[in-house]
Write a structure and sequence with these properties.
The protein is of the alpha+beta class and 319 residues long. Helix content is 15%, strand content 36%. Strand 2 and strand 3 form a beta hairpin. The chain is globular.
């Protein structure tokens, strides 16, 4: 054998011997029992003001979030539909009740007279963690795609008013919204919510799933009250100026509501919020995401800068 090939083989062998490979893992197929296809009955209005069902209405996905037949999906999957069916893995259709929708987070809760196994909720994932989606891609039925966690706590993507997205490169296409994002232990990490496509309507490796923390926050209120009760902090925030961003990160208070919680907490216009609760603030959209986990009447520790000097306060949230 040519000496060059021998040397190359030795180098490759030595290099591979020094690497640690992730162990292969098999997807647990029983996880599919917790996910269903969603078929909203969209209406097409005629000129005589009568409506017919659209036979080509796009499909979506939903995942079991609570016992007793509660399923979470995206509000945009339902659109304006007042009636919706779900399709089980064996093809059977079941009519679902729309319990409630929250447009700020683009989430909706369904209920059907059928109990599903509810996936264990995982702790917040780390960058690079293995994940898989289970979704009704293009309305073809449930399928599995896998990838890794690319980013966490994504906000400001332009999809929703309130966002707490996990970014993944696992393939997602139309029909995948409302699908489950699970880890290698088949625990629920998030719910597939959006495809970042720019002008094309196809997967380019940047997809977003709503975090389980936000899912549970919204789904619990929808189940118990039919709507979500959001708290008001008593301020509005905006972006830092270019000069400020050269020194600090955060979001700047641009308005204080007279008599509101922010004024009572001694916050002032121009203060730069650095941390809200346990969430570090990098931009204005992070503030709404951080506050979303608190209910009206709750208290939130705030860390902020005033004239470059750090300070702290406790904010009481109004209904």
């Amino acid at each position: 054998m040519n000496s060059r090939y021998i040397i190359a083989a030795l180098i490759i062998g030595i290099t591979l011997n020094g690497l640690t490979f992730k162990d292969a893992w098999a997807f647990e197929q029983n996880t599919l029992k917790s996910v269903v296809s969603v078929l909203p009955n969209w209406l097409r209005w005629k000129q005589d003001n009568t409506a017919t069902r659209m036979p080509d209405a796009p499909e979506g996905t939903a995942v079991a979030i609570f016992k007793d037949g509660y399923l979470i999906t995206n509000a945009h999957v339902l659109g304006s539909a007042k009636e919706v069916d779900i399709r089980l893995n064996d093809g059977k259709l079941i009519a679902a009740k729309i319990v409630g929708r929250d447009l700020g987070t683009d989430l909706a809760l369904l209920k059907v007279p059928h109990d599903f196994p509810v996936l264990e909720v995982a702790v917040a994932p780390n960058l690079g963690d293995d994940v898989c989606t289970i979704a009704n891609q293009f309305g073809l039925g449930l399928s599995v795609t896998c990838g890794v966690v690319s980013a966490v706590h994504r906000t400001g993507t332009g999809f929703n008013v309130i966002e707490d997205f996990i970014q993944t490169d696992a393939g997602v296409n139309p029909g995948g919204s409302g699908g489950a994002l699970v880890d290698r232990n088949s625990r629920l990490v998030g719910m597939v919510s959006a495809i970042f496509t720019k002008k094309s309507d196809s997967n380019i490796g940047i997809n977003f799933a709503t975090s389980t923390n936000l899912l549970m926050r919204v789904a619990t209120d929808l189940r118990d009250h039919g709507r979500v009760f959001w708290a008001r902090p008593g301020f509005r925030v905006g972006a830092l100026s270019t000069d400020q961003r050269r020194k600090w990160t955060g979001a700047k208070i641009i308005h204080i509501e007279p008599g509101g919680g922010a004024e009572k907490a001694k916050l002032a216009k121009g203060d730069i919020l650095n941390r809200v609760g346990n969430r570090q603030i990098f931009k204005p959209t992070d503030v709404a995401s951080a506050l979303a986990y608190y209910h009206p009447g709750g208290t939130v520790p705030i860390t902020y800068l005033r004239d470059g000097h750090p300070s702290e306060t406790v904010l009481t949230l109004a209904p």
